[in-house]
């Protein structure tokens, strides 16, 4: 993961970048401790925490980290001398806020890093998920374990209260407030149910309004998600989004306890859609009924130009956002990324399930918060789970056509069947020059545009001329220059298809 990603996740509450001689796209592979009393034990790509080394005592450690090709070092007190040493050593220098505990910083920084499974697949970090939950709820998010330790949190420009500030720094909140939460049974409720808990603000303690939900694996509590209200009220769908978020977060926390289980649900979907696993097995793993209808929806992020890492971050945020919506809609929903697209399996559907509204809601939310275009194709609802591949293939056909020449944000094959079929024919023409008429390929742009307008107008010269903003005689003159028998309907058909390809 890049240093930029880690800095975005941790943000101002904990660290501040001082120098980055190699830029922010350097890879960070691990977080390690460097103690001045011990021999340096740091490797390429490490983020080294310089504990107990301040001032000039940190200089040899910074130089050692540079020689080992570390990505960055973190100190409690920066200085011009340390910044120059880091620049000379070719290693980034981070300054840690004085009140931050080293152990808490190490835990959070390791939490940001993605974890790669034995088969090379990657589980996204909790910080990206916290940011997604903040987007959907309109609040300020913290994800905690069962011991109330903060595992991840969202970035925020809103005012945070004392409880959140202390929690992020790894310190305990105001005891009167915590005692009140215990007396109200808030912690017991979070551990024992999926119910969203509402907590009123306490101005006298500097505590703002909150909602919270427990994270569970079956009956086992894993932690909780807390959402503090900021300068603006929480969104109308905040509680529904929080319920879905808790279900999505559970596999992440399970992963921390049991690393081999990482990406299990994502792997299930990939295996089902590629035919490597049968529907009954997948259904048994996710608690779905394989005999009930199901559908696949496929999403794609458009506008991938520019910084690649930024695009990847946006795609990760989009996938997190989709996961929250899908889990809120169906507990057994599966979400997986493949080939730059995000696939969603929705099992246990009613025979007449209407998925367009859900998909449009996801696309609208993603576009608004990611500030980029998102397209989605809804596969048809198939009668049983073992037909999910049919729904997936249909959705992929629609999304392929949307990527080529359709501006729709959300579509089904029934909506755009003709456009999809023509788009697939045009793609075939594009890939096979031998089945094209070379005379049409040779037309200059002006003649090609004029001929297509004429064909689209079904031979109505005046209508085509109006569309081109030229005199009808001008269009007639252009058509006479084209060496094609336009009275032949087959010639017209080939020409129209080939010109649309151009």
TrEMBL record:
<feature type="domain" description="PucR C-terminal helix-turn-helix">
    <location>
        <begin position="447"/>
        <end position="500"/>
    </location>
</feature>
<dbReference type="InterPro" id="IPR025736">
    <property type="entry name" value="PucR_C-HTH_dom"/>
</dbReference>
<dbReference type="InterPro" id="IPR042070">
    <property type="entry name" value="PucR_C-HTH_sf"/>
</dbReference>
<feature type="domain" description="CdaR GGDEF-like">
    <location>
        <begin position="278"/>
        <end position="401"/>
    </location>
</feature>
<comment type="similarity">
    <text>Belongs to the CdaR family.</text>
</comment>
<dbReference type="InterPro" id="IPR051448">
    <property type="entry name" value="CdaR-like_regulators"/>
</dbReference>
<dbReference type="Pfam" id="PF13556">
    <property type="entry name" value="HTH_30"/>
</dbReference>
<dbReference type="Pfam" id="PF17853">
    <property type="entry name" value="GGDEF_2"/>
</dbReference>
<protein>
    <submittedName>
        <fullName>PucR family transcriptional regulator</fullName>
    </submittedName>
</protein>
<dbReference type="InterPro" id="IPR041522">
    <property type="entry name" value="CdaR_GGDEF"/>
</dbReference>
